[in-house]
Amino acid sequence: MDETIRRRSINEFIQKDPFARHLGAQVEIIGPGHSRVSLTVSDEMTNFHGTTHGAVIFALSDMAFAAASNSHGQTAVALNVGINFLKVSRSGDRLVAEAKEEFAGGRTALYSITVRDEQTGDLVAKSQDLVYRKNDWFVKKER
Which of 1, 11, 23, 34 is the most buried (most CB within 10 A)? Predict the structure, then answer.
């Protein structure tokens, strides 16, 4: 399988995420180890303070983490996630999470994830996440 077909197969696999579709999130694979996920906050995604629920921000960050860490075609699962919520957002705001692979060594890899308000560029949350790569490929590498 040539690399273009392989990358397309990986993207198609990741696009099948039912939770991302449920939230209305758009998942974009930028390249191996790099993804971007965006969504527009709706009234149903806010808490009793009228701000975006932390679980929504966490989910957006986690979807970017999952897409980036699985973008190699190898099954990857979270080992640890540490997130800091830095600024509130509200219904109508468009949030963008970007995940980048910072280190890959053996079975583990470290990712840095930012969540920003698309209009202002303000940093809403920052996360550092660790993944475990299983000995399982959903899209095999060429030998």
Answer: 23
95: β partners: 39, 117
Q: Specify the CATH architecture of the domain 3-137.
A: Roll (3.10)
Contact 101, 69 (CB under 8 A): yes
- pLDDT in single tens digits along all 143 residues of the chain: 788 999 999 999 999 999 999 999 999 999 999 999 999 999 999 999 999 999 999 999 999 999 999 999 999 999 999 999 999 999 999 999 999 999 999 999 999 999 999 999 999 999 999 999 999 999 988 76
Provide the H-helix boundaries in the chain: 3-14, 18-23, 54-70
